[in-house]
Amino acid sequence: MKPAELLDTKGLANIANDLKWVYQEEDLPEDEQNMKETIIDMLSCFEPEEALPGEFRCPESPLTSERSKKYQEFADLFTQYAKRDPSLYLQVRKIIDPDFESRVFFEKIDNRIALTFDALREYIDHGPTNTSPGVFRLDVPSCAKTLKSLVETIDEFHEHHAGVEDVAVRAAAALITILNRVTDYNVNAYENITWGLDPPLDPVESNLYMALIGTYADAYPAFVLDALGSLPQEDVHRNHWETLQGIEKKLTDSQTPPQYMNIFRNIVYENRKRPGSEVREREPKRAMQ
Fold first, then answer.
1. Please, which residues have CB within 8 angstroms of residue 162's CB and are 6 or more apart in sequence?
2. Do 78 and 39 meet the contact criterion of CB atoms below 8 Å apart?
3. Burial class of 261 by CB neighbour count within 10 A (0 to 12, 13 to 18, 19+)
């Protein structure tokens, strides 16, 4: 029997199985660096300190725990073996499949969002001193910086996993949660403090809404909205219509800059008229504020 006839009769998968070859149903990462990053992202699902993939790839903090350092060493060792034997990568990918990786990522994101706002509340209530072990506190500028980083992390994860089922749905939910909570903070966070800080004169340093939305200008990315606008719009609106309307009211009441309001309404209303699968074209990323 000729090779072509054998392929037609048995199929490549069955031939590979008879010969105990690894049969790839999905492509391997393009190169060794890409494989390393993909494996690190997969293994970050089990990182002891709940690090996000980007944090796990670059664990340079002096506060990194011994358990996390050991796990990083294990991940590096595993990556070396996987680069030599692609079948090892494929077997692990079957265990840590893209849907599982996505679910763990957004569980961490949801937890990190809650921790970030809790840390701001801890700072407002108790100030920066007398911090108990394990208590996380953030002032307004630090909270704003953390939230920007989370938005960028969500956006990048969606960009690299857009083909995974429900990634866009989960990304939309996380982004809308962040935007909704920020619009609740259009207040001077330090107005009623009792722990002795001289309140900053610049509202950007004392008002989370002003730091992220209220001072928006066209030269900068629109907080949350740039990432939200890159998602399939049916996923943005699914289960979030009332929340989006509530956000619009809060933005209107806060006299949000017109440019920001126009972007918001374009995403919420204009894009709703488009076919469900249409996605706004992603603009080149601009530097974060």
1. 168
2. yes
3. middle
Place of tokens 């494929």: 90
Q: Which one, of 271, 49, 237, 54, lies nearest residue 152 by Cα?
A: 54
Tens-digit pLDDT profile for residues 86-145? 888 888 989 999 999 999 999 999 999 999 999 999 999 888 876 666 678 999 999 999
Q: Which residues of 87-116 are buried (b: 16+ CB within 10 A; e: fewer)?
A: ebbbebbeebeeeebbebbbebbeebbeeb
pTM of this structure: 0.82
Domain ranges, ordered by start, for the chain: 12-96, 97-289
pLDDT tens for 181-223 read 999 999 999 988 888 778 788 999 999 999 999 999 876 889 9
For residue 274, what is the DSSP state? S
Largest CA distance in the chain: 88
Burial (CB count within 10 angstroms: exposed 0-12, middle 13-18, buried 19+), residue 269: exposed
Distance CA 170, CA 193 (A): 36
**Cα(53)–Cα(40) distance, rounded to whole angstroms?**
7
In sequence order, the 6+-apart residues with CB closer than 8 A to the CB of 123 are: 137, 138, 139, 143
The pair of structure tokens assigned to 80 is 């070396």
* Total residues belonging to the chain: 289
**Residue carrying structure tokens 């002795």:** 196
Closest CA to 169 of 154, 184, 181, 183: 154
83 burial type by CB count under 10 A (0-12 exposed, 13-18 middle, 19+ buried): middle
* Exposure letters 41-63 (e unless 16+ CB within 10 A, then b): bbbbbebeebbbbbbbeebeeee
